[in-house]
């Protein structure tokens, strides 16, 4: 699983993309909802990728590691 920050095509607003999850769509959607609730921010789930608004990579990594996922920060 990788977490990367992306700003291209978003008018300078950053989002964190979470990719590489081997879960079903229903489980990914509930995970996205849980992350949004814990971080207090918006986001979405599209095509197997979870998008979380803002640069919360550190917090996302902590939450996912507590759930037992192996997480790697990708990109700058």
Structure commentary:
The protein has a single domain (2-74), classed as SUI1-like domain (Translation Initiation Factor Eif1, 2-Layer Sandwich), CATH 3.30.780.10. The chain is built from two helices and five strands. β3 (43-46) and β4 (49-53) form a beta hairpin. The chain starts with a strand and ends with a strand. The chain is globular, with a radius of gyration of 11 Å. It is of the alpha+beta class and 76 residues long.
Task: Give the topology, please.
Blueprint (H helix, E strand, L loop, with lengths): L1 E5 L8 E5 L5 H15 L3 E4 L2 E5 L3 H10 L5 E3 L2
Parallel strand pairs: 1-5
Antiparallel strand pairs: 1-2, 2-4, 3-4
Pfam families: SUI1
InterPro entries: DENR/SUI1_TIF, SUI1, SUI1_arc_bac, SUI1_dom_sf
Family: Belongs to the SUI1 family.
Main sheet overview:
5 strands, mixed
Q: Which stretches are poorly predicted, pLDDT < 50 over at least 5 residues?
A: none
- Terminal-residue CA separation: 16 Å
Q: Assign the CATH architecture.
A: 2-Layer Sandwich
- Total individual domains: 1
The number of helical runs is 2
Overall geometric form: globular
GO molecular function: mRNA binding; translation initiation factor activity
Pfam family, one: SUI1
Domain SUI1: 2-68
InterPro entries: DENR/SUI1_TIF, SUI1, SUI1_arc_bac, SUI1_dom_sf
């Amino acid at each position: 699983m990788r977490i990367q920050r992306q700003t291209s095509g978003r008018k300078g607003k950053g989002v964190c993309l979470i990719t590489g999850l081997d879960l079903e769509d229903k489980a990914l959607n509930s995970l996205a909802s849980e992350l949004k609730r814990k971080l207090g921010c918006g986001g979405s789930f599209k095509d197997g990728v979870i998008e979380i608004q803002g640069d919360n990579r550190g917090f996302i990594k902590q939450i996912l590691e507590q759930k037992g996922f192996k997480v790697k920060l990708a990109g700058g």
